[in-house]
Amino acid sequence: MTAGNWIRSTILPAILILTISGCSTFGTKPITVSSKPIDIKIIQPAMPRGIDLEDIKWNVVSTAPIANPCVKNAEGSENPGVREKMDHPDGLLKEDGSPVRVCANGKENPDWPEGYSYLDKFLEENKEMNNGDIVFMAISIGDYEIMSGNMQELRRYIREVQEVIVYYRNVTINDKPAVGAQVKMKD
């Protein structure tokens, strides 16, 4: 028997038997599994900056005439605080023959012509603000309702996302309760 045959006939079968048996001939050692909670420090991101909303000015414009009341009597007069009227100084009469009544102390806004409407006032104010140009946006009542519904949907979504953030912060922070972002309106 040669050395190469002896290696093939003795050592190779021994290695093959050891690998197939999985070292079970040396005995088994029991594996113990133990679990205990580990406190993981999770770094919390900073909460986003609160929403800072600014007020906008809504104008409801109609062609209804604006009431231009008479000026009230002064405090030292005979009837203080009363808006007195008198017959027209030129003796003008209405169609039914009764005298035209005018304010004794004048109107509160004497520069407003008779029949001055909210639309006239709005257009004048916009001309002053825009250097003589009239520029304004308009929205229909139906579109305003849609915009209002969209705003409510945004508010709902923001609240729900905020609740999720607060929940996960409460789950991961043990020492103090989490608080969501605040919405502040500027005056």
Word description of this protein:
By secondary structure, the chain is mainly alpha-helical. Among the domains are: about 50-55 and about 140-185, no CATH class; about 65-130, no CATH class. Helix content is about 35%, strand content about 5%. The chain is built from three helices and four strands. The chain is rod-shaped, with a radius of gyration of 45 Å. The model has no long low-confidence stretch (mean pLDDT about 80).
Coarse morphology: rod-shaped
Biggest sheet strand line-up: 1-4
- How far apart are the first and last residues' alpha carbons, in Å? 106 Å
Report the mean per-residue pLDDT as an integer: 79
Low-confidence regions: none
Query: What amount of the residues lies in strands?
Result: 5-15%
The biggest beta sheet reads: 2 strands, parallel
Q: Using DSSP, what is the number of strands?
A: 4
Task: State the helix count.
Answer: 3
Radius of gyration from the alpha-carbon trace, in angstroms: 45 Å
SS-based structural class? mainly alpha
